[in-house]
Amino acid sequence: MAKLDKTVGFIGGGNMAEAMIGGLLAAGVCEASRVHAADVSRDRLAYLKTTFGIHTTGDNCAVVDGCDVLVLAVKPQVMGSVLSTLDAGCGPRLSKKLVITIAAGIPVQTIEGMLASAPGLAVVRAMPNTPALVGCGMCGMYANPHVTSADRGHARAILEATGRVIEFETEALLDAVTAVSGSGPAYVFYFVEAMVKAGENLGLDTKDAFAMTLQTVKGAVTLMEERGESPKELRQKVTSPGGTTEAALRVLREKEFPEIVMTAIEAACQRAGELSRQYV
């Protein structure tokens, strides 16, 4: 991964910020001396400084002044107060910086509006997911018209430190990203829960049922990645006529499993749109 010749600042030092900082340092994208972080928790700042050797402060504007790229990594419910403080204290100084927001549901328009003292602000909105915490994340990103080609490269370098990134030309598609990959890990966890419970019902102890299910999911994902075949093709190969897999899949079809999954994801997408509109 190419080295980023920029200083990166984080406002918010929670789990996702920690994952991104750790990823940047582990991949050699940034040196610790070029990473800054601010948070309201002194204990959290002490942890980040001790763990990563980065610069830490309780002053958000100090991070703004010390960085080229600013990552807004606070929860959506406190973003308004954070942006208001930035706009009043150091907003004009943001005008030549790249801002990346990973706060779920907050549109670029809202970021721009609340940082009105920095007109023409370059903003990238990103939607990561929790596997970023272990370097296996999936992230969708959208860049506003003020983001240059170079800025895009910098944003991708930062976001790819925790997994894969796909850029979208239309911000509205981030609702679909939220529904498919943002919330997606929960669907997988739920399916795993059901498989483990089924194993228990059939006489397996919990530890063995979980180990078998986890390895089955990992193996299936690896098979899809390495074989280059579609999920449908791989499913058909393992489904022998009159066999056990066919018996199980028949029940799933009768219970309208595909329709249930699609309806659930559509509901997540609709809710993502509703939440985004609350912040406009």
Which class of the largest domain in CATH terms?
Answer: Alpha Beta
N→C terminal distance: 36 Å
**DSSP strand (E) fraction?**
5-15%
Query: What value does the average pLDDT take?
Result: 96
Could you state the CATH homologous superfamily of the largest domain?
A: NAD(P)-binding Rossmann-like Domain
**CATH architectural name of the largest domain:** 3-Layer(aba) Sandwich
Q: Main β-sheet: number of strands, strand sense, barrel status?
A: 8 strands, mixed
- What would you call the structural class? alpha/beta
Major sheet strand order: 3-2-1-4-5-6-7-8
Compute the number of structural domains: 2
Number of strands: 8
Poorly predicted regions: none
Order of H and E elements: EHEHEHEHEHEEHEHHHHHH
Helix content: 40-55%
In the CATH hierarchy, the third-tier topology of the largest domain is known as Rossmann fold
What labels describe this entry?
alpha/beta; ProC C-terminal domain-like fold; eight-stranded mixed sheet; elongated; oxidoreductase; proline biosynthesis; cytoplasm; EC 1.5.1.2
Structural features, described:
The protein is α/β, with parallel strands linked by helices. It folds into 2 domains: 8-174, Rossmann fold; 184-276, ProC C-terminal domain-like fold, CATH 1.10.3730.10. It has helices spanning 15-26, 42-52, 60-66, 76-90, 108-114, 149-159, 174-182, 184-201, 206-227, 231-238, 244-254, 257-278, and strands at 8-11, 35-38, 55-57, 69-72, 98-101, 122-127, 137-143, 163-167. It has an 8-stranded mixed β-sheet with strand order 3-2-1-4-5-6-7-8, with helices on both faces. The model has no long low-confidence stretch (mean pLDDT 96).
